[in-house]
Amino acid sequence: MPDTQDGKATAAPSRPVGRPRRSQQALLDAAAEVFVESGVDAPVREIATKAGVGVGTVYRHFPTRSELVVAVYRHQVEACAEAGPRLLVESATPEDALRTWVALFVDFLVTKHGLADALHGDAAGSDALHAYFVGRLVPVSSSLLAAARADVGPTNDEPALDGYNLLKGVGNLCIGAASDSGYDADRLVQALISGALTP
Amino acid sequence: MPDTQDGKATAAPSRPVGRPRRSQQALLDAAAEVFVESGVDAPVREIATKAGVGVGTVYRHFPTRSELVVAVYRHQVEACAEAGPRLLVESATPEDALRTWVALFVDFLVTKHGLADALHGDAAGSDALHAYFVGRLVPVSSSLLAAARADVGPTNDEPALDGYNLLKGVGNLCIGAASDSGYDADRLVQALISGALTP
Amino acid sequence: MPDTQDGKATAAPSRPVGRPRRSQQALLDAAAEVFVESGVDAPVREIATKAGVGVGTVYRHFPTRSELVVAVYRHQVEACAEAGPRLLVESATPEDALRTWVALFVDFLVTKHGLADALHGDAAGSDALHAYFVGRLVPVSSSLLAAARADVGPTNDEPALDGYNLLKGVGNLCIGAASDSGYDADRLVQALISGALTP
Amino acid sequence: MPDTQDGKATAAPSRPVGRPRRSQQALLDAAAEVFVESGVDAPVREIATKAGVGVGTVYRHFPTRSELVVAVYRHQVEACAEAGPRLLVESATPEDALRTWVALFVDFLVTKHGLADALHGDAAGSDALHAYFVGRLVPVSSSLLAAARADVGPTNDEPALDGYNLLKGVGNLCIGAASDSGYDADRLVQALISGALTP
DNA sequence: TATGAATGAGTTTTCATTCAT
DNA sequence: AATGAATGAAAACTCATTCAT
Predict the structure, then answer these.
(1) Measured between CB atoms, which of A1, A38, A124 is closest to C1?
(2) A82, B166, C167, D199: least CB-packed within 10 angstroms?
(3) Where are the domains of chain D?
């Protein structure tokens, strides 16, 4: 029984309309803020209000929540992805590159409260987000990990940890980090790297 | 099995009359089932129905969802907690004990759909659950970790990883494991241990 | 992106709860009234308000709009269905029986504003209603029509009009009858019968 | 075909400049298409998109949905209206003329998905549509009906069926015909005519 | 003239939670 | 003690309509 807005539902809006462009960015900024405060599952209404627009406007620009989330974090994901190859060149050792890159990623996830939570594909609508993260970052984590492993020589874990598991593992380790001062995601992640590179 | 009597409530009752826990147990059984099927966030109504009682009854026994979850998993958490000291004695090395115990914990977490998700204290109402897990298991993980560290000698991480971080880290690594066949929580956890014990 | 009512959505209702039974009937009465005023597509909220209950209560009793509509009109549909065989016995001729029965049906449909509109299965959610009407009344209309045809002798229309077409035709002829004083559904329907029985 | 020029707008323009109707026609074509696909209740946006114009343009040309619908079907309604007198002359009997004309009307209504539904004046905003149909076609149906009645001699229905009732009755009988293969609007309509002309 | 961004009311549906019986 | 009816806040999503540009 979806709806169908028949004649009855027609009523002129109380106050006029028509503010122009610029909404897109206002929306992105507002969403980023709200995501930090309430997580990526925050009500659309909340975002709209914060942005000073109507909910319809949010839906116009980002028909699904995923698209909004992806848009909000695209810049940072891109930056993170691009940092990988660069670090490999600039760092003293591949292991350093990997550690630095991962720290970058952790910082990103921890700063954006709720992002880590949204990263595992369970939540409805965060699938696109998950896919985007995985698609963009797994290749990077894979190559950094491979380089580091090659550099430290044979390790003791046979079917070696792959880039996907590393990325998701790191992502998971960041969950709740922002709100729990006794929890040190960074240290855990570095320990995980150490473990992955143990000869 | 709504009629299952509490295992040790037989013989001459030491307490006055002693036979309340009837729906209590039915509730626990039902909740356990539902948690497996639909996760720990399943509607209360679903649990009540499965148990053959009214929702009011659920609330009477377990005013908050947390209390219900805690009750459901208490047995297993206890078993896990008690396994710690025993493993320390039985295992060849403290590291073995730690690894085995953590694997036990991982198994528990991964088997119970959604438990790992509920474990980090973000969600309103899961605080009691979180507190119970932490209160009961952190001492165990701490002592196992300490023993293992003592055994392997000095490690390279200065303010060493503590039992709380280990427990929560492991918990986080288990998130989503059940629904993602490409994700290997166990391997990640073992790598984490390796990292924590790297000289 | 259905929903999922997480912790955040939990807020104690401002005013208490728990009025007992009797809602069912209040609901039915209210719905009947609202259907007359606004058609069977009236917002659920409107019905709930008129009945003095919350929307949840409506959904509890009638999970789909169809079930509500069917419940509202069941009595009258039953009465109509049962009148068929009786009229066949009591009337002077089968044609009289048919005409009287159809007039009964018309009266029913026209009185309940919007019922005729809902009768054709297009509207979302009125499928069950449609099925109920058809299932219950087509057999009646069929037998009355057959009896009348048998009585008047051979007619000029070869593949004779069947009970289904008669019922739906009559139903359609009643659409809008209540709100258009210049439109005489009854006369049209009687003409239709005449046409169906023309030798 | 957005560039299709209005058929008779060629030659030397008798009016000042005369070449506005451009998007007007594109709109009409698009609306016709959309009406067939999604019914006359299709979202305005859909029509605008199909026509390659903004919604504002639709509103500029057709402030109400009715006006759009009327415009879309004007040609065909005109054709139908003009067919009446012609059929009266060309047909063997006035009854034949009436039957043929009504069949024409039925064909028109059934082909246009949702048109029959929109024809009864209930829905807000379809008033203009209703008025146009009635204003244009009732005179035709009246005269054809009158001629047929005069030809068959006295009938048994006292206040005889008028052209308005005939037209609306036929319209109603067409509702849902397109989507229900078991429903034969044409046969019903012919039966109705038979009934109206029964001596 | 045309555009289309913006608006926001309106509707459905789900559940946690209370409390009269 | 148990029950489950009742409540109503919430959240998603759709579209008709306006109006700044």
Answers:
(1) A124
(2) D199
(3) 1-63, 70-196
